[in-house]
Amino acid sequence: MDILESARTNAQTTNGMIRPSTFRVVAGPCTVESYEQYAASAKAVKEAGFEYVRGGAFKPRTSPYSFQGLGEEGLKILSSVNDELGLKGVTEVLDPADIELVMEHAQVIQIGARNMANFSLLKRVGAAIKGTDHGVVLKRGFSATVEEWLLAAEYVTSEGGDNVVLCERGIRTFETSTRFTLDLSAVIVAKRLTDLPVIVDPSHAAGRRDLVIPLSKASVAAEADGLIVESHHDPQEALCDAEQALPVEALQGLRETLQPFAGAMGREVI
Ligand code: PEP
Ligand code: MN
């Protein structure tokens, strides 16, 4: 079987999150740290004019000694703040046993780079979202080829979970000036091989906030359908990924900064 043919799916876009004429920005903190922190960070996302907010409750930390997230308590904070502000939430699931719980509290389930090849998790998520309004953001593993990434998406779609958004978040290379290397070619290639939307995470790719906006502009030009960026109301104090979080002022200007680029691509930043 032609592998690329198999990677092509009939799935269109997601539940309103991604549309061909828009450029969707999802912003928010790496992690839900407390009610106050998440509420302040989510409010800044709302005030910047965005509708989707990210916040991790179950965190896939490289070290078992790092803060692992607040778990269910974090999900409750996420959904109560989001409901109050009228925002839709994106949050990661690590364990198949938590899928239903995560779906109760968030609109979109993130599958992280470290779990891209966790096929039983992919299948369970695909089956769980089938026939629902929930979507999935599937991060590319940092040493996965485009083909492996697209086939991972098929583990979700073949279970009936159509609402899958691919997310390029940087791959591991010899380069050390950035945390990972943002592979924009992969965005273009993936869009040619599949009908699934593709968004970019410039925050984890760069690992440094000064590169997030330039990489976001480049993502628009590379035909991406949107972005997922980390932002925090007080970045210096963030418990996770502090160096890459955009401060509130940068978030406030993001829409205006990106719109000329998005406009040139026939899209509206939302
Ligand atoms: C995250 O989004 O906070 C995260 C851990 O991302 P990734 O899986 O891409 O490393
Ligand atoms: Mn992070």
Features:
globular, single chain, binds manganese (II) ion, alpha/beta, about 40% helix, disordered N terminus, about 15% strand, about 270 residues, binds phosphoenolpyruvate
- The first-to-last residue Cα distance is 39 Å
Mean pLDDT: 95
> Tally the helices: what do you get?
10
Taken as a percent bin, the fraction of beta residues is 5-15%
The secondary structure category is alpha/beta
Low-confidence stretches: 1-12
Distinct small molecules bound, one entry per kind: phosphoenolpyruvate, manganese (II) ion
Number of DSSP E strands: 9
Measured on Cα atoms, how large is the radius of gyration?
A: 17 Å
Shape: globular
Order of helices and strands: HEHEHEHEHEHEHEHHEHE
For this entry, what is the oligomeric state of its chains?
single chain
Largest sheet: 8 strands, parallel, barrel
Summarize the amount of helix as a percent range: 25-40%
